[in-house]
Recover the amino acids of this structure.
């Protein structure tokens, strides 16, 4: 892990040197870099920077920093103020839950560890997310017009951001929230009997070489299972009202 974060250390040093006396409160590494699913060379290193205020001068600072570090695998950071965090817990509970559970504080106070997530706000966002995924799959399947390449892209687009939702569903069921995708899949199967393996299958498909498109039978089976699993998630979340 320390080797992976070396590039971020350089990024962090420049932030602290330039902004420590100018409203910088804390810096946190978040996301897949802290999980077994991180793929060096493919996955980005994501971070959250908390500051007292966000203005154009600050944005320009990160633009210049981004140009300097664009080949290091460090993504543009998420910028927030303490007030924004407090007032947004009801709007983005899935995101803040995952920030809380998967982060490493690199500078300043750990403002994420004590975040309080309202279960009903979380359930509502889970419902919105899984129902949106289902609509996305409907539209994607029809729009593909039998084009395998298009349908694969649609599947890969839909898996992005799905695992944080799955963690949130486990949280709502008072279940442990694993970090690794494989363990999330296992936990969901144990929790609601879901054929969740297909989510891991699509996730792995996303990490294949782009020219390796599944054959027609493999794709049909994958889409069918993915669709049915998403429908099952919709039914499960709906039943929690």
């Amino acid at each position: 892990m320390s080797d992976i974060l070396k590039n971020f250390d350089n990024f962090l040093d420049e932030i602290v040197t330039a902004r420590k006396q100018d409203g910088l409160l804390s810096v946190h590494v978040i996301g897949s870099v802290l999980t077994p699913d991180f793929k060096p060379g493919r996955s980005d290193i994501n971070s959250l920077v908390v500051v007292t205020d966000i203005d154009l001068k600050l944005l320009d600072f990160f633009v210049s920093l981004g140009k300097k570090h664009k080949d290091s695998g460090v993504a543009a950071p998420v910028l927030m103020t303490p007030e924004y965090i407090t007032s947004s817990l009801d709007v983005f509970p899935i995101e803040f839950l995952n920030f809380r559970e998967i982060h490493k504080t690199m500078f300043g106070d750990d403002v994420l560890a004590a975040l309080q997530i309202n279960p009903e706000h979380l359930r509502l966002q889970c419902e919105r997310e899984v129902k949106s995924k289902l609509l996305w799959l409907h539209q994607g399947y029809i729009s593909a017009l039998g084009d395998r390449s298009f349908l694969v892209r649609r599947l890969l687009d839909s898996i992005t951001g799905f695992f944080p939702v799955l963690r949130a569903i486990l949280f709502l069921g008072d279940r442990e929230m694993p970090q690794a995708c494989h363990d999330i899949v296992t936990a969901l199967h144990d929790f609601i009997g879901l054929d969740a393996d297909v989510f891991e299958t699509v996730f792995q498909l996303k990490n294949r070489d782009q020219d390796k498109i599944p054959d027609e039978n493999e794709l049909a089976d994958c889409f069918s299972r993915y669709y049915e699993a998403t429908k099952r998630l919709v039914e499960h979340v709906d039943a929690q009202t």
User: Anything to note?
Assistant: The two ends are 40 Å apart (CA to CA).
